[in-house]
Amino acid sequence: MSERPEFTHQRERHGLIGPFSGRQILAAFLAIVTAGIVLVGITTPIGTTAGPALVDPRATPFVIASPTQGLRPGDLAPELAVTRPDGTTFQLTDLDGQPVRLADLRGKVVWLNFWASWCPPCQHETPILRELSERYKAQGLEVIGVSVQETTADDVKSYAERYDLHYTIGFDALGDVFHAYKVFALPTQFFIDTNGVIRQVANGPVDENVAAALIESMLPPGSSAAPSSSATPPASPSPS
Fold it and tell me: Which of 74, 190, 213, 239 is disulfide-compatible with 120, CB 3.0–4.6 A?
């Protein structure tokens, strides 16, 4: 009779923790640490955020249409009257129903501002328009706010009264002027010189100092800025 092979019992191997070996546990630990370092890196702001000189982030434009190639500096600013495809015409009027025409403003610097009362970056910028309009109006600046995508002219008028806005505001009910100027974001600014030519276009809110410098460079010769009022300004608009 042939010999049977000897039966041997092999002891089951166990890992360091349950079925996992020390090498596997170490690899998992290193993976978690690496992921944590990457997460901290991508969420930490570039530069320092310490100290009293921290500056609030600038507001960005509210995009409401597909970006298009619009009007450029050097173009003659279109009149604020539009002939629609059906042959009817639209003339921009202010909140009292009076027509607003660029032709009537030749010789003045015109700051044309497309905005809406519900638009957060427009609300952020409104105090700047109010301040610069008051500062430079006597020197030849005419600020025109073109209100778009609003429910009624009365809503816009209430907003203007609430924030003490004395510059001209037109109600562009169906966006006729908005489309004529090929605007796609709010706010959008057109700075128009004394001859009716666009000198600067800005998609988004403007910086007060930059806007003031541009206006001063465009004002009629001999004009000078009036000092800013030291009185406490009215409450600034805030997002609803």
Answer: 239
- 145 with 94, same domain: the answer is yes
Q: How many structural domains are present in the chain? A: 2
Residue 111 lies in a domain: yes
CA quadruple 22, 27, 31, 33: dihedral positive or negative? positive
* Count helices and strands in the chain by DSSP H and E runs: 5, 9
Both 47 and 66 in a single domain? no
Contact 178, 167 (CB under 8 A): no
Query: What is the DSSP secondary-structure string of 66-122?
Result: -------TTSBPPPSEEE-TTS-EEE-BBTTS-B--GGGGTTSEEEEEEE-TT-HHH
Q: Do residues 167 and 130 lie in contact, with contact meaning Cβ atoms separated by under 8 Å?
A: yes
Say if 236 falls within a structural domain.
Answer: no
What pLDDT, on the 0 to 100 scale, is given for residue 45? Answer: 37
Question: How, if at all, do strands 109-115 and 141-148 pair?
Answer: parallel
Q: Flag whether 132 is in a domain.
A: yes
Q: Please report, rounded to a whole number, the percentage of residues in the chain having pLDDT higher than 90.
A: 62
- What tens digit of pLDDT does each residue of 12-24 get? 455 555 555 666 6
Distance CA 191, CA 160 (A): 21
Domain housing 38: 15-53
What is the pTM assigned to this prediction? 0.69
Inter-residue contact 129 to 111 (CB < 8 Å) = yes
